[in-house]
């Protein structure tokens, strides 16, 4: 066999390998399917269910049980619950994903710096993170939103801050194990600057645990956003948001339980599916990490 | 001499922690001429790696301290250079390869990328130009790896090939001096022979000087022009390879080293190591460092550290040779 042929056989794209391993996991695939459904809701929401149905009030048909015309029934103002759930996905998902990305960027950088540089830098950063962690995240978010006022932008800031320490911790611990390896010393011996070492050598090796933490974080953030909206500190009416819908449904628990069931299930399934995807990714990445 | 590429004089290095001070290197001097190979031999803990790291100023921050001495490379004092200039030298004029090829390569970058990085760092434009790709191919062929494999990852190569990649990265910018810290210790004997031969050929082609750190005297015999034997942070014997292998006079430690090597021709039930252990580097003995283990120890060895006695190119740091001065 010629050298060329052997090398072609050996060559397997990292991503393809990852997908192959991921596919083998049934619960992870189930999670992925639901995430995909959520994505469709976000992107094609208007096509599935026009937004006007979500906010047009029609007192005459209020509090109706699920029917052919209204899949999930109607709420107290006669608005179609199905449409509201579909459009609520946009708020929850955007909040979850956007805040995760920002928290990851900030937390990742801080974690890499903490793990790579001196003890003093490390201690300073970690003690700062301890301060944030010591305050329960919901209370912290509440405090920030109360101070800054309700609305999506402030909700974003509040949740992002409460998420940063987790990323710092994960990235820092990954970096600490990487920095001990000989190729980092070899890079220094080759004349590479510290910034370049962190960017080109350290962080790409830490990507595994970061991805897993990121997906877990999205699900936690969905829950947190729902919680805050439930308390009235998030998205403002008439914009649909699952947590806010849960809050409105409390009054009608006995009369129209379906108002609670559908948004509640949406929250649970979304959080669960992101968690499953995260688990699946972790398992798919592990054997590669070991080598 | 303009021929001398590297001159180290009376180098002393300590590792200072809150609890204790480790006297790692205690006054060594050696020089290396262009195109020559110097072998640095010694047991684990003798101070060889510390010496090598100090040449590139890679000792751990604040803990590894060069307390005295000088390191002159091509006329420049390396110890007084600002770090930014030191980074220019690392990888471009002095390269280093480490012991374990398994962990010397970044697992998430292709080998081609890693070689290219070395080239890009030290090129004028610091960007990936067209000629960099070409140079990567050249360098890979030079170490005997088909250039078509440049997009593969380190885990797809065997140990010997990984070490070749490491050597390729080190030689990519054609440095004047290559420091090899036990480059073949982690490899099996047949691969070791291949890698050593390759290093010899490359050395001749590129006229690179080589500082080879090893504890294998066989490797020394095959590759080195000069040899320095280190013990407890000192060079106790120094000379050409002929001096070390053929001369009648030796430091008792060197005698012990040669004696420890099992003889392939004779049969023996036991190995004959040197008795005792290397002294605790935080509490070095008074007098000669080797005195506790030396079979020819005299009274003076216990109280006075021996000076170096030169006999032509051969230098021995031992009281036994005080009478005969060359």
Write a compact overview of the structure shown.
The complex is a heterodimer of chains A (291) and B (326). Chain A has 291 residues and is mainly alpha-helical. Helix content of chain A is 77%, strand content 0%.
Characteristics:
heterodimer; A: 291 residues; mainly alpha; MetI-like fold; 77% helix; disordered N terminus; B: 326 residues; alpha/beta; Rossmann fold; eight-stranded mixed sheet; four-stranded antiparallel sheet; 12 strands; globular
Task: Summarize the structure in words.
Chain A is mainly alpha-helical. Chain A has helices spanning 3-10, 14-23, 26-48, 51-55, 81-116, 119-134, 137-148, 152-179, 182-189, 194-230, 242-249, 258-290. Chain A has twelve helices and no strands. In chain A, helix 3 packs across helix 5 and helix 8 packs antiparallel against helix 10. In chain B, the strands form two sheets. Chain B has an eight-stranded mixed β-sheet, sandwiched between helices. In chain B, strands 2-1-4-5 form a four-stranded antiparallel β-sheet, covered by helices on one side. Chain B has helices at 48-55, 83-89, 101-104, 111-121, 130-142, 159-171, 189-206, 217-223, 241-246, 252-260, 299-303; strands at 4-16, 21-33, 37-41, 64-73, 76-77, 94-97, 177-181, 209-214, 226-231, 234-240, 308-311, 314-317. Chain B has 326 residues and is α/β, with parallel strands linked by helices. Chain B has a single domain, classed as Rossmann fold (3-Layer(aba) Sandwich). In chain B, helix 4 crosses helix 5 (130-142) and helix 6 packs parallel to helix 7. In chain B, 31% of the residues lie in helices and 24% in strands. The mean pLDDT of chain B is 87. The chains are: A mainly alpha (291), B alpha/beta (326). At the A-B interface, helix 1, helix 9 and helix 10 of A face helix 2, strand 6, helix 4 and helix 6 of B.
